[in-house]
Hints:
By secondary structure, the chain is α+β, with helices and mostly antiparallel strands. The chain has one domain (33-108). The chain has two helices and eight strands. A six-stranded antiparallel sheet has the order 3-4-5-6-7-8, covered by helices on one side. Strands 1-2 form a two-stranded antiparallel sheet. A hairpin with a 5-residue loop joins strand 4 (57-60) and strand 5 (66-69). The longest helix has 18 residues, at 2-19. The termini are far apart. Residues 16-35 have low confidence and may be disordered.
Amino acid sequence: MKLLWRGALLVGLLGLGACVQSPLVTAPVTNPSGSSNHPRFAPPPGVASQWDAQLGVYVVGGASHLYYRERTYYRWNSGWSWASNPQGPWLPTDSSGVPPGLFRRYAQ
């Protein structure tokens, strides 16, 4: 009976060990071109950008106050707006419509 109990305990522990996963890597990854990318969020297509870990978004190069994350561009111009294309059309939004890091940066 003890042998059966030990076998069941061992099988249970081995099963739990298989459920343990390594933590998700959240550090930026540098690609050969030298730009810093995030492992989960893809950079904006066709524009130069740099991942800003504090803001939690890509900062789009060559444009003032233009950001990108998850197929959405965000722009600050005395208020927030968003678009699916860097040229617009831009739709107004409040701070709840932008990533938290951007909200904190421009909080008044």
